[in-house]
Amino acid sequence: MEYxxxxxxxxxxxxxxxxxxxxxxxxxxxxxxxxxxxGLLVALMRLSRLPVIAWFAVIYTxxxxxxxxxxxxxxxxxxxPLLVGVDFNTFTAVSLTLGLQTGAYMAEVFRGGIQGxxxxxxxxxxxxxxxxxxxxxxxxxxxxxxxxxxxFFTRLTELFKTTSLAAAIxxxxxxxxxxxxxSDTFRPIETFTVVALFFFTVIFTASQFVRFAERxxxxxx
Length: 221
Fold this sequence. Notes:
Keywords: Amino-acid transport, Cell membrane, Membrane, Transmembrane, Transmembrane helix, Transport. By secondary structure, this protein is mainly α. The chain is built from 9 helices and no strands.
């Protein structure tokens, strides 16, 4: 028997999917705001000449990179609040999880980018009397970030797709709303086809922007 597609039933519940899409963007945005500064900080710690600081950074990156995301989500939602004595809602738990885990990956990206800047740049800044902070801000990081644009995009793409795991603790993101829609309409194929198109559209659009940024800010050899 030939399957009869019916997307109209899904679009009648479009308000649920729109609400879920907003939740997905909010979650990804917060995770990025957490990941970038942590990634840079941990990268600088890895490059520190103090063994204790560098060792702590290694433990952090290895722990979060080796742990399954879904396990971390459950841990930060159920266990971590007991340790700190503060109740977390689903948004806080998942954004903290994704932000800290993505920060561990970003730390390695930042570290590779910083190490990729030629030593002569550091020496020139030192000769001009610039401190570490000004050297990083005005000389090293602008060059490093331009080299890291493609890898940044890859990590952010993975982060955006990983937000779907938030459905495990009933956070209102698009996959969780899609499950409700599929249950209400009895149209899971059409519902998740729409969700797949949503992810494709967002990631494809972002990839075009990244390609433009690559060409615009490419580092000349």
